[in-house]
Design goal:
This protein is mostly helical and 232 residues long. The protein has a single domain, classed as Up-down Bundle (Four Helix Bundle (Hemerythrin (Met), subunit A)). Strands 1-2 form a two-stranded antiparallel sheet. The longest helix is centred in the C-terminal third of the chain and has 28 residues. It is globular. The N and C termini lie far apart (54 Å). 31% of the residues are buried.
């Protein structure tokens, strides 16, 4: 295979994530939310490994007319933002005029994050809430949160999009790297088990999901405090 075809194949692989988004959307319309989350999970896997393939194929050199970063952002907006919003609305968590306002808040604040040229720090952290609404939606369904809780969550996280605080990237963080990767594996297993067994999750699986989320929040807080101490 020629270098150009290898690069084109990588871009096609990245673009396939949007097909996962479409299939998740169709499942959400039919209220098959577990199936929808499985498709979103596959989209996350594609998003997590396509960068490695892009570097191996040297796509910037062999297919310079296509921006892999722009392609990735387009796919991510669909799978990380748009589809989860539809799922929350279809699942009855964002209802009526208030739900529409909250949905608009998610969509519009996420556009800011995706277009923010300073959304990544030099130490590979996200700056501001990274618009991972697919994960947020999963927690809403897995924990069976009440409508008021979802509303508070949406307002708080949307606001944090504009706050210049750091959120760790679990795959690229160096501090406690082994612990963090282990936590990610445990989270993935618990999330898969919860999805396959039906949502909301059983209390042991929900406890694991909450514990890993707490670890991620704590690690992000540590980065934020370290950053402030270095600036003084």
């Amino acid at each position: 295979m020629s270098p150009f075809l290898r690069a084109a194949a990588v871009h096609a692989f990245t673009a396939s994530g949007v097909v996962c988004g479409l299939l998740a959307l169709l499942a959400a319309f039919e209220k098959r939310f577990e199936v929808a989350f499985l498709w979103l999970g596959l989209a996350m896997v594609i998003d997590g490994i396509d960068g490695t393939f892009a570097r191996l194929a040297d796509v910037k050199r062999h297919a310079p007319h296509v921006s892999g970063e722009t392609l990735d952002l387009c796919v991510d907006y669909v799978t990380y933002v748009l589809v989860p919003v539809v799922m929350l609305m279809s699942g009855g968590y964002l209802v009526g005029a208030g739900g529409l306002v909250l949905a608009a808040l998610i969509l519009m604040s996420s556009l800011y994050h995706f277009s923010d040229t300073g959304s990544k720090s030099d130490d590979h952290c996200f700056v501001g809430f990274p618009a991972i609404w697919n994960i947020v939606a999963f927690y809403v369904f897995a924990l069976g949160l009440p409508g008021w809780g979802v509303a508070v969550l949406v307002v708080v996280l949307s606001t944090l999009t504009f706050v210049r605080i750091k959120f760790v990237h679990p795959m690229r963080v160096e501090t406690l790297k082994l612990v963090t990767l282990t936590a990610c594996v445990v989270w993935g297993m618990a999330a898969m088990a919860a999805t396959l067994n039906g949502l909301p999750a059983s209390w042991p699986l929900a406890a694991v999901l909450v514990a890993v989320a707490g670890y991620g929040i704590g690690l992000s807080a540590k980065f934020g405090m370290d950053g402030r101490s270095k600036n003084h």
